[in-house]
Amino acid sequence: QAELLQRAQDFYDKEEYDLAKTAMDRALEQDKDLPTNKEYHLAARIYCMTDEYGRAFQYINEALLLKPEYVRHIMLKGFIYGRKARKLAKNSRISSSPELQAEYQELRAKELAHFRNAYEQARSEIDRISALEFLAKAEYSRANLIDEEQAEKDRKAGIQHLREAEKLGPLDSGSQKILKEFEARCERRKQNAELVKTLMKSANDYLEERKYDQARADIEVGRGTERPAVWLGRRHLLLVRRLRCRLPVHRQGFGAGA
Prior knowledge:
single chain; mainly alpha; 11 helices
C-alpha cells in the first residue's frame, strides 16, 4: 500500500494524472485502516487535476474532518473551486447563460474566500506566504472572467497581496513573474501615455496647418497604442471630428496641455 501511494505521488509529480489516479485508487482499496489526512489530500489533488471535482471535494472534505486546522487542506479546497470555475468559464454557453455565470461567480467567490481563510489561519511564515501567493495568483492571473470592472479590482488586489507576501519572504518563480509583468505593464502604459500626448499635439498642429493626411496618420498611430482610456476620450474624438469636418483648430482649450 505504501508503494502504491509513492507511485501515485510520483505519477502526480510527473503530471501523469490518470496513472496517479489508478495507483491512488488501488492504494485506498488495499488500506484496511481509515486513510490518513495526508492520503486524502493527495487523492483530492489527483482527482482535481483529472477534473473529477465531486471526488476531489469528497477527499478534501475527509482530510479537513481529520485535520481541520491544516492550512494546506484549506488552500487545496480553494484551488479545487478555482479550477472548477476556470473549467466552467470555457463552456461555450456561459456568455448567454445567467445560470452558468451565477455558478461561476459562486465558485470564484469560494475560491478566494478559502485562500483568505488559509492566510488568516496560517501560523508559520511559510504558510502565510504560500496562502498570500495562492490568493494573489487567483486575483491577478485568473481575474474575474464575467465582470471586467471586478476583474480590474482583482488584479490590483493581487499585486497588493504579492507585495505583502514579498515583505514576509522570497516569492516563488510564478509570483516573481507576475510582479515583473505588472511592472513592465506600468512602464509600458507610462511610455504610451507620453507617446499619445506627443501624437495628439502633433495631430493638432497638423490640423491647424490643414495638413490633414499627416494629422490622420498621427491619430491612427495614437489609436493603436495601449494607453489610458482618457486619451481615447475627448481629445481623440475632437481631433477626429475636426479632421472629418476640415475645420480650423484653435489652441484655446484644446492644446496638448488642455
